[in-house]
From TrEMBL, chains A, B:
Associated pathway: Amino-acid biosynthesis; L-proline biosynthesis; L-glutamate 5-semialdehyde from L-glutamate: step 2/2
Keyword list, A-Z: Amino-acid biosynthesis, Cytoplasm, NADP, Oxidoreductase, Proline biosynthesis
Compartment(s) of residence: Cytoplasm
BP GO terms, sorted: L-proline biosynthetic process
Catalytic activities: L-glutamate 5-semialdehyde + phosphate + NADP(+) = L-glutamyl 5-phosphate + NADPH + H(+)
tRNA processing in keyword set: no
PANTHER family: DELTA-1-PYRROLINE-5-CARBOXYLATE SYNTHASE, GLUTAMATE SEMIALDEHYDE DEHYDROGENASE
Name by which UniProt lists this protein: Gamma-glutamyl phosphate reductase
Keyword Oxidoreductase in annotation: yes
Gene name per UniProt: proA_1
Domain Aldehyde dehydrogenase: 10-284
Single Gene Ontology MF annotation: NADP binding
Length: 420, 420
């Protein structure tokens, strides 16, 4: 039991800052040793991890977890193996730290380089699945950041067990033990105290429901990497291959509905509205999707219900889609910039100028041309692993992997130059 | 006279957002045309600009401006020519927008590119010199951002005259007229309203005194690019060329004292303290610098006064320097990370491992090896021009030029790919 929450959070934050200064000087080999040793330890300790996890599973009904949420919480042998393999995959990624991003020689002989280095201390807040504990610790330490992990109360025992294992391995390979810390209380006040620690925390990354993100954004005194929601569009242009458009629409909407890169809204050019909506509408309806459309959509899809203004701003996270017929490309672009959430938007077209205009003008983290919105994901885009997705434009946009956990500094090498 | 400040700021912010969407689609030629036409117009209208400027000069005593500050406010023919040339220099810089930062082809054939694009809307708050109006507008529009300019009350008439000229030229070349807006009131409440416009403003850049920066940081609801102060160090290592060290120290401290990249603190390795401080101390004293040192410094420099803990955190912006003898490199690094402001810190050494360790471990925007701290400047480091300097680690660090006014988006090109 922690008696003074504020003193505790200050201590944790100060320890993280001190560890971050040490981490600036460690080698890639040390970081990889930690990842590989930890993977081995996770496999060895699988039974003990499942034992701790059982305590969380037992308490799940107390927290009102649905059977699906309880299942996501459960650590099985397969999932533990997956966690271990995740650490090994991060070990195999190139070390982002020390990369010379660019360099130039000034006329006076100064050699100016921008060198990639860690952000410092990451405060990571997440809910539910315990494997995120290992993933987040791996990405932060691989990018030479210290991390303060704040998991959900539902996974408290699983997270503590994992954390002890990961922190113990840090000391064995000579890394600072406070490189990874887990907040050992479920008191909500602790989060508020950490969000005021701007001297010792460089960035906060919240991952979870919208109310969590909103609380973090309103209380944080340091930068935040986040997305609120994903109101993602599929726009079927006049020059679309309609069969391709149907396949991409179905995939974007239905392949997995509870995720931020699933489509929530369909826009169709008036010239192809009838031809497209008759078939695509029937397919969506057959798949069990409820369509909420404007008047023109409802002309072609009898089953569609009327859409309200609110529908166009809604992230359904389920089997519903809003739909609207637009008169031209620019109306689609304006609609997306106005109603969307700057997350992921797709155009289906064979018209190169239309694709270029859409890609340039749509103000979103990712624009898909003739591909499903579901590809906006760190793994799918080749980042190796991701700690979150950002819909902001500052620092990091879209999926955030190792590179997005770094910054740079200028290193200027001279031979006695002074300024005239 | 603006009657409803809040309605006015909302309108300005909304107009900026609409202009930003249009700017996403303009060509580099249009932007350069605007810069070159504006340069010509500034030269043609020099007399009218000086007439408006005279009104500000006349009111300068009302605002309590010192003779030096009044002089900085004054527009002369030379300064107007300098402003025009500044716009031409920005026109000559490469267009940052549309650059493919990196790209890859995924195994499923998706072509993933990260393309540089504008941040959107910049709110720029500055004090005193009217030439900053033209500089900031030029950098923002060249990077396809809309800008809301909020100048100081001392330069109100000069800024309005310049702004009318720049905005007028926008329309002539077909750019959105609200790409550049100037806040046409000196009411301080307007700043507060803009700082809450996070839907329509993507970044705020304050440039001025520490109290302005602090107000902006505490009230802003969007990201801020800023630095509070520059407590910059010169560390003279055991392996330093002592003559070079004296020259760099004098330059860093005295070449210009009122600027953020001037040295404010001297650290000397104990092994060379006597040899270095006897000569360097005498040189600083002869140049009129007051030294505030620890006990060991005062052994070698009779004129040095005792330093307090506070001295090591102080940005003097004048002819004073704090000094301390340290036992080794790591003590110097720890001192800088603890007392410094993460701005610019220099090491003087011929020892390569020492230089590498210092560069890696010092957590500052710029680290100078055998060069003056005064080189941390956009022009000196080759950025072409700068809108400010950042001591933060998020998004932009060090001098901020055109590139730092941009972000990126993922553009993913497919041929019908869907996710399995």
């Amino acid at each position: 039991m922690i008696e003074n929450i504020e003193a505790y959070t200050q201590q944790v934050a100060r320890q993280a800052r001190a560890a971050a200064y040490e981490l600036a000087l460690v080698t890639g080999q040390q970081k990889n040793d930690w990842l590989l040793h930890s993977a081995g330890r996770i496999r060895e300790d699988a039974a003990a991890l499942m034992q701790e996890n059982a305590k969380d599973i037992e308490r799940a009904p107390e927290f009102g977890l649905t059977p699906a949420a309880t299942d996501r919480l459960r650590l099985t042998e397969d999932r533990i193996e997956g966690m271990a393999r995740g650490l090994e995959e991060v070990a195999a990624l190139p070390d982002p730290i020390g990369e010379v991003i660019d360099s130039s020689v000034r006329p006076n002989g100064l050699v100016v380089t921008r060198v990639r280095n860690p952000l410092g201390v990451v405060f990571f807040i997440y809910e539910s699945r315990p494997n995120v504990t290992a993933d987040a610790a791996a990405l932060c330490v691989k990018s030479s950041n210290a991390v303060i992990l704040r998991g959900g109360k539902e996974a408290f025992h699983s997270n503590i067990a994992l954390y002890r294992l990961l922190a113990g391995t840090l000391e064995e390979v000579g890394l600072p033990p406070h490189a990874v810390q887990l907040v050992e209380t479920t008191d909500r006040a602790a989060v508020g105290h950490f969000l005021r620690e701007r001297e010792n925390i460089d960035v906060t990354i919240p991952r979870g429901g919208k109310s969590l993100i909103e609380r973090v954004v309103s209380e944080a005194t340091m930068p935040v990497i986040k997305h609120f929601d994903g109101v993602c569009h599929v726009y079927v242009d006049r020059a679309a291959d309609l069969q391709m458009a149907r396949s991409i629409l179905l995939n974007s909407k239905c392949q997995r509905t509870g995720v931020c890169n699933a489509a929530e809204s369909l826009l169709v050019h008036a010239d192809v509205a009838e031809a497209f909506l008759k078939d695509a509408g029937a397919e969506l309806v057959a798949a069990g999707v409820e369509i909420r459309g404007d008047e023109r959509t409802r002309q072609y899809v009898a089953e569609a219900k009327p859409a309200t203004e609110d529908d166009y701003r809604t992230e359904y996270l389920g089997m519903t889609i809003s739909a609207k017929v637009v008169d031209n490309l620019d109306e689609a672009i304006a609609h997306i910039n106005r109603y969307g959430s700057h997350h992921t938007d797709a155009i289906i077209t064979s018209d190169l100028p239309a694709a270029t205009r859409f890609s340039t003008a749509v103000d979103s983290a990712a624009v898909m041309v003739n591909a499903s919105t579901r590809f906006n994901d760190g793994g799918q885009l080749g980042l190796g692993a991701e700690i979150g997705i950002s819909t902001d434009k500052f620092h990091a946009r879209g999926p955030c992997g190792l590179r997005e956990l770094t910054c740079y500094k200028y290193i200027v090498q001279g031979s006695g130059q002074i300024r005239e």
